[in-house]
Amino acid sequence: MANVAQLIRRQSSRELLRVPLDRLELRELQHRLLPTPSDQANAGPALYGTTNAAFVEDGGAPSSSSPSIIQQQHLNLGSSGTSNTASSTTRNRLTSLDRIDEKEEHINGVTGGTAGIITSSDDNKGVDVEGAAIVGQTPSGADPSSGDERENWDSKLSFLLATIGYAVGLGNVWRFPYLAQKNGGGAFLIPYAIMLAVEGLPIVFLELAIGQRLRKGAIGVWAQISPYLGGIGIASTVVSFNVALYYNTIIAWCLYYLFQSFQYPLPWSECPKEYFENGSYAINMECKQSSPTQYFWYRETLDISPDINTPQSFNWKITLCLFIAWLMAYLCMAKGIASSGKVVYITATFPYIVLIIFFVRGMTLHGMADGLTHLFTPKWEKLADPVVWLEAGTQIFFSLGLAFGGLIAFSSYNPVSNHCYRDAILVSLTNFFTSMFAAVVIFSVIGFKARMTYENCLETRNQTLVRAVLQELPVCDLQQELDNTASGTGLAFIICTEAVNQFPLAPLWSVLFFLMLLTLGIDSQFGTLEGVITSIVDLKIFPRVRKEILTATLCGFCCVLSIIFTHGAGNYIFTLFDDFSGNVPLLIIAFFECIAVSYFYGLDRFANDIELMTGSRPGIYWMICWKYLSPLTMLIIVIASFAKIIVEGSGYLAWVAEAGTTRHLDWPPWAQVLIAVLVLVSALWIPGIAIARMFGCQPLADEPPAWFPADELREFRKLTDVHHQSSTMEKLLFCIHDDGTEGLCFPTSSSAQSKANSP
């Protein structure tokens, strides 16, 4: 029985087995399926077609051991006339009634008292076998994915909603609008679309395809391509862990604002007042120096310290919200995609409902046209600024969630015959148009806020004109109000909340707005955590620990660590993580992903696999992007990012309570060390694993070949050519040699020798 399990897995590519079998089941099935020599003369053709081959040990003849009690009692089909019925159902599926328990006592109970375990079905559609679902050869045209033993999505819609929810996140709402108006308005769409075409779409396609093909998470995928490349997956997992650590803090802030929205008036609508015994009051000076929304954000929510070196007090309110956020993440992911796949029906669709509601409201606001004009008026001179192209490429990259491992993990649960090319196009374009739509919504609201502030300024100026000195008059400038658009937390928790204050029924709009941010954030958190959990499960680091326990442990550990973001200096540490834990490492990871597929796995081989999975071979454009354009673009962005840090320096905005404003401070030495650690702790895994393998160490176990029913896929997709014949252009562009190998664009010794030996 030594090779039985391997033989069965091999047969599973022909849809012979749907569920894994333990050794006791294999023993019983061997007795059931292999007739004794005395039976072979009268048994006719093999009962289950080619299934018997799975039980031939060491490539020899079937074992001649005596049949089991079950076989003696229930497989004497000749006398009952069911052999003809069974042979007529050779190519039909057989379904499982109940799995045989691993305990021998249960098997004895079955053999001793159970009758009719195998019976001929009345409608001649199959034979029921207790213990395992044995399936005949895949009928022509049947979906070959049914032989896959990996967990699958409940439906294609669940996968699409989960992937779109993962890709469409907070950055689409609070970063893209800011970048667009800052970097040329309508002109910014040109570099943004170009970067989407050469960087975003190709890598989304690559990650979805490689995950679907190799059926593993990020670590397993790259380790299977080459043991030397396992560090790519570990780097992705480390980055995903670091990002998930601080990303849930945003969800905690959204929860806090959501809870505060259920009151009237909104707590950030006016400055707090200190009342005295004589009935008089004084307005809080910090709030008076800034604004009610700024005061509520910096003092009431964050209780922020003057700099990163002085943590000050512990913020129990945000800590409680953080605990709720991690509890939500666990409850939604406890059973993997079986649970998160259902939650996404709400979390992936609700933000679009709220955006549509805000869009309708925004189109009726006074000042809407000012905001949209400011957003889309092209400033063509900005196209000559390399920073604009750098920020377009960076935004595309992080908006789609590339190199985190989330897309690979999600696609690994897809059927092997899924059309991943269509998915890549759909997800990428949905992300792009969501960013555009969100920008329209946000700037219609910002235009309203700027117009109201401008008109209030004019009114105040006219009222004080008689008694004021000319130099003391307030400056009223609509353009300046529009330019004062913030990004990130400043846009969500200060600018937008100030605009919502001026809406009728402001608490209702506030609840909708923060529910939208909450669902946008939790969706992205699903994908980020799934990249970590799937990699740990595939590595079998804790093989005896159930996935629910593993998820609970991970969420609990992250919850404890993320408390560092809840004290007075927590917002500054959050900024440090946000700026450095993902930016450069993710670009490096994606660069090596392209290198791994194009130069190690083989670009021609990868294209052949995609053709089998989707029915069509990827075009020349995609292959050029994977091998040349995408890695070159990411390399340029990495170099430019380092150059920008060196030239401009790096720091953070600290809140000055006395002045009611922020000031720029440089990172202290210990923070600079932490920045270096965040970058290196992820990126160094890539060369580290390769070097360890070179010196004989084996940090990662060698991955077994992935299940991939190539013949069935070829039949399912009705493909006639077994091997793709590379065109002359493909050979020139991708360095494909005449013998089918890939490499440098000159003949290798093997190919040169084969040419010399050819007639």
TrEMBL record:
Cite the GO molecular-function annotations of the record.
metal ion binding; symporter activity
Q: What is its main location?
A: membrane
For membrane topology, the record states: Multi-pass membrane protein
Q: Which InterPro entries match?
A: Na/ntran_symport (IPR000175), Neutral_aa_SLC6 (IPR002438), SNS_sf (IPR037272)
The UniProt transmembrane annotation reads 157-176, 188-210, 231-259, 314-331, 343-368, 388-413, 425-446, 511-537, 549-574, 586-603, 624-647, 667-686
Per its UniProt record, what Pfam families does this chain match? SNF (PF00209)
Keywords per UniProt = Glycoprotein, Membrane, Metal-binding, Sodium, Symport, Transmembrane, Transmembrane helix, Transport
> Where does it localize?
Membrane
One Gene Ontology biological process: amino acid transport
Q: Name one GO cellular component term.
A: plasma membrane
Where along this sequence does the record place binding of Na(+)? G165, A167, V168, N172, S399, N431, L520, D523, S524
Classify the source by domain of life. Eukaryota
Under the heading PANTHER family, the entry gives:
SODIUM/CHLORIDE DEPENDENT TRANSPORTER, TRANSPORTER
Would you identify the family this protein belongs to, as annotated?
Belongs to the sodium:neurotransmitter symporter (SNF) (TC 2.A.22) family.
- Name-wise, this protein is Transporter
Q: Which organism is it from?
A: Daphnia pulex (Water flea)
